[in-house]
Amino acid sequence: ELDLRMIFSRYGDIHSLRVLKYPNTGVSKGTALVRFVSIEDATRAKKSLHCLPLHGQDLPLEVKYAETKEEKLSRRDNRSNNAEKQKAKQQQQQQQEQTSVPTSPLAIPQRDPLAGLADVIERYRQHWKH
Fold first, then answer.
1. Under a CB-based contact definition with an 8 Å cutoff, are residues 61 and 53 in contact?
2. I need a surface site. Which of 21, 56, 60, 75 has the fewest CB within 10 A?
3. Tens digits of per-residue pLDDT, 15-47?
């Protein structure tokens, strides 16, 4: 945390800095939230530090602005709408499966080979009578 504070404080006054950690282990998630006093300082830090390799880390530093409350709500609403669409699609697929013709030979009802033969014979007789 002190290393990050030293790195980011070069670009302006820091209001707050918090390293996100896993609750069970206390190990860093590899993410920190840095809040500057001014947007100008934050912009300067973002331009200077984004994609810079950080000492001892495999991945370069990714610096971006935090989402506003409106953006978070919008993203949450989009996820909720997508989940509802997915659920509706699954229900539709289940309904189609229930109404579709069975493909298993064991599920096809066996028909009497002579069923309808009497009708065919009767139509044949009627045809040749005239």
1. yes
2. 56
3. 988 888 999 998 888 888 888 888 899 899 888
H-type helices in 1-130, by residue range?
2-9, 39-49, 69-99, 117-129
Query: What pTM was estimated for this model as a whole?
Result: 0.49
* Residue 4 near residue 36 (C-beta atoms within 8 A): no
Convert the pLDDT of each residue in 90-111 to its tens digit: 888 777 766 655 555 555 555 6
Cα 56 to Cα 53: distance, rounded to the nearest angstrom: 9
Which residues are CB-contacts of 20 (< 8 A; sequence separation ≥ 6)? Answer: 28, 29, 31, 32, 33
Q: Which two tokens stand for residue 61?
A: 């530093």
CA pair distance 78, 40, nearest whole angstrom: 31
